[in-house]
Amino acid sequence: MVTVESSSHHVYVGADVVVKLIDVDSHSRLNREIALAPHLPTGLTAPLLDSGRHRLGTHDIRYACYARVPGAAPGMGMPGVDGVTARSLAEAAVHQLGRLHSWMPPGHTEQMLREPLDHGGFTSQAALFAAVENLAALDRDGTIPRRLLDGLTAIAERAPLHAQAVVPVHADCHWDNWLVHDLSVTALLDFEWARFGEPADDWFFLARFSGPHAETVLDIIAHATTSSLETLRVECEVREAAHLVSDLRLALEHPDANAQMVADRLRALDELIVGRYWWRPTR
Question: Which domain holds residue 196?
């Protein structure tokens, strides 16, 4: 089996199976994915073959074994993907996410999806204001320029009062988590952040990580959901702000271990605030 890079698990890929391993004492999100897998809409994700716990030396290991689905991930920003292919893949992805959003999970699964989860996304205007204030207080060395903190506050001022928990969402559906084979979407992977939320929680990830095809993806989402582009931009902007604030808070709490994360998120924050990513004139 071949080892695949993962920030949260040990992942091994064979000819017919994929195995994910994690220490039981680490985060419990794999448990969520395992519990969801048998109940998700048919053909949406890789079939779960087996799961459980295994004692390995002095460690208890949680494992999940999935059937390997044909395909490879397009990758963050869809590098090398032409416009026609990007449109086709985005249309398929939006369709699959629509199936997820209209799925009615069985009782015990619904209960799990409604359990509190510190997902780092947008929950309310008040929570976003508080998170920005906390970030400013934590930034004792002035790592984050004042104009960026002010920009975050301005986004919070435009945010809805509350986010609703109305449909099942994947909440991490960037293009590293999709498989594509022969120009067709074959699976959506990694449901460990799944929860109840709003469709925009998924539309943000799909559009933001489409690289030069972001406008195309927004157009496809708007058409499929009969939403206005302006509404989608506001929803995506506030969600990106919430995720960046959450990531920067975690990174600043442990700066020595997260120097690269701080740099990456500051670049993204500058693009969001100064570059007005969701409101560029060319969009």
Answer: 83-279
Cα 95 from chain centroid (whole Å): 17
| Phi and psi at residue 174, to the nearest 5° | -70, 175
CATH number of the domain to which 102 belongs: 3.90.1200.10
Dump pLDDT digits (tens) for 76-115: 999 999 999 999 999 999 999 999 999 999 999 999 999 9
Torsion angle in degrees (nearest 10) through CA of 137, 140, 141, 147: 20
pLDDT tens digit string along 143-195?
999 999 999 999 999 999 999 999 999 999 999 999 999 999 999 999 999 99
Half-sphere exposure of 163 (CA within 13 A, CB side): 27
What SS3 state is found at 65?
A: strand
Tokens of 203: 């539309």
Describe the chain by its helix, strand, coil percentages, rounded to 5.
45, 20, 35
